[in-house]
Amino acid sequence: MRLRLAGVVKRYNGQTALDGVSLQLSDARSLVLIGPSGGGKSTLLRVLAGLEMPDQGSVEIDGEPLIYSEPNLLRHRRGIGTVFQSFNLFPHLTALENVTLPLIQAHGYEKGPAREYAMELLKRFQLEAHAGKKPFELSGGQQQRVAIVRAVAVKPRFLLFDEPTSALDPEMTAEVLDIIAELRGEGRELVLVTHEMGFARRVADHCLFLSAGKIVESGPAQQLFSEPQTAELQGFLGRVLKY
Amino acid sequence: MTLRWPDIFFARSKGNGEELPPFGRAVGVVTALLFLSLVFSFAFYRLQYGWDWGAVYRYRRMFLAGWLVTLAISGASLMASLVIGLGAALAQRSSFLPLRYLGKLYIELIRGTPLLVQILVFFYVVADAFGIGNRYLVGALTLALFAGAYISEIIRAGIESVGESQLESARAIGLTRRQTYRFVIYPQVMRRILPPLAGQFASLIKDSSLLSIIAVNEFTLNAQQVNAFTYSTMESYLPLAVGYLALTLPISLLSRYLEGRYHYAS
Asked: Of residues A192 and B21, which shows the higher confidence score?
């Protein structure tokens, strides 16, 4: 994907979450955002998802500027798949219904074909046995996998993952990361916010290190992890890789 | 473990929950009923009162007619109060500010004043000015306005209980505001508000007794009239209690059942 950010600023009640983020990427299939909590990673992802309007600056994805009107944002959100930290499945719907809801309501599928297609996808991710279950009957890892299926089902231009494994134990983390790696292997474009450094290094083409609302370092993942240039990134990597 | 006889009266705590002894529930209920009937048997035994059920029995049709009117008025005002309550809840969330504050004002005024005063004002002032003479209609509408304020708060709490993260998720998958209400908020709110709604309906039935002051021939007024004809106060009012209980008890049980079911699915 081609990405161009120019001076993006986002404030929440006086707190500056993004403090003039500029970036130009011409060809990154997978972009990974790392950095300390509160550094602006999630906010940047939410701006890309069309969930947050920046106070200043412009965003351009694949040559198209993001226009902040509700109809345009709606179209933008329908074209991408977003996966959240806390799964955010609808608790009153079964796994299958969670997947078919956006297909039917936002993407013009008929009920029958939507169900068939969703079942096919659930099968592919070894979730067909859980299709009829409600989220409270599923483990965290299963819920997150259903949420990923929901995001993938709409054939998005790219996928956004906001700390998709932060609420999971290590075993479930592995099952979710496997899927993300698999999607990456298929050539899906994705943007990922994560605290899993080993995984970030493995899947990232390009890596951004954000701290205090600014991009402190940006470059190919290999380079960022092996030769951190700034003291901030060196300190950060030192802390998170200590244990 | 052997049970000593007093143990049958006590629930034992077990972890976070508790465990009842065998037949504990039945023994508890029977004992409680026994206690109540002892107290009241004693009280009625001491009462110097010449019971005369015969006089009241002759007016049984009047009791039945009043009971049916109470049922009809309560049912009609429940339907209307649901519509009013939903409207007021949505008005409070409206982006049109005068509507929002009209909703808030309505709720505060209704909840802060006695139903008795509301009935008098609506019947003698408002309905009179608008030329509505049917006291049954005015009565049902006043009750509906009264219950609507409480129901609107129940609905509002239900809507707000749908978490921020779900609304965000709805936005992220590209649902419009209307679709979000229809497919995400509405089904969850319906499930959550059923138990408190049932409780509200039980109150509504009892509150309908106040319509007697504008001479709506409902259950309470008819009992008052029977009392006036027969001078048999106890015999007139005890059936009243039984009649209301026959309406409210099933609703209360239904409410408990719904609460339990919702608890499981959350």
From this structure: A192
Residue B100's pLDDT band (cuts 50, 70, 90):
very high
SS3 of chain B: CCCCHHHHHCCEEECCEEECCCCHHHHHHHHHHHHHHHHHHHHHHHCCCCCCHHHHHCCHHHHHHHHHHHHHHHHHHHHHHHHHHHHHHHHHCCCCHHHHHHHHHHHHHHHHCCHHHHHHHHHHHHHHHCCCCCHHHHHHHHHHHHHHHHHHHHHHHHHHHCCHHHHHHHHHCCCCHHHHHHHHHHHHHHHHHHHHHHHHHHHHHHHHHHHHHHCCCCHHHHHHHHHHHHCCHHHHHHHHHHHHHHHHHHHHHHHHHHHHHHHHHC
Interface of B with A in 10-29 (CB under 8 A): none
**Beta-bridge partners for A60:** A4, A65
Nearest to A90 among B174, B184, B266 (CB): B184
Give CA–CA dist A205/A61, Å, rounded: 17
Convert the pLDDT of each residue in B136-179 to its tens digit: 999 999 999 999 999 999 999 998 888 888 999 999 999 998 99
Q: Which of B161, B162, B165, B169 to mutate to test the interface with A (most CBs of A within 10 A)?
A: B169
User: What are the structural domains, with CATH classification, of chain A?
Assistant: 3-80+156-240 (3.40.50.300), 91-153 (no CATH)
List domains and CATH numbers for chain B: 61-265 (1.10.3720.10)
pLDDT value of residue B265: 53
Is B174–A101 a contact, with Cβ atoms under 8 angstroms apart?
Answer: no
ipTM at complex level:
0.87
Residues 6+ apart with CB under 8 A from A124: none
Band the pLDDT of A147: cuts 50, 70, 90: very high
* Residue contact A92–B191, C-beta within 8 A: yes
Give residue B263's pLDDT: 57
The mean pLDDT of B210-239, rounded to a whole number, is: 89
Residue A243 has pLDDT above 80, yes or no: no
In the predicted model, is pLDDT for residue B1 greater than 70?
Answer: no
pTM for this prediction: 0.76
Contact A101 B173 (CB under 8 A): yes
Full 3-state SS string of A139-188:
CHHHHHHHHHHHHHHCCCCCEEEECCCCCCCHHHHHHHHHHHHHHHHCCC
pLDDT surpasses 80 at B262: no
Pull the structure tokens for residue A128.
Answer: 């067909």
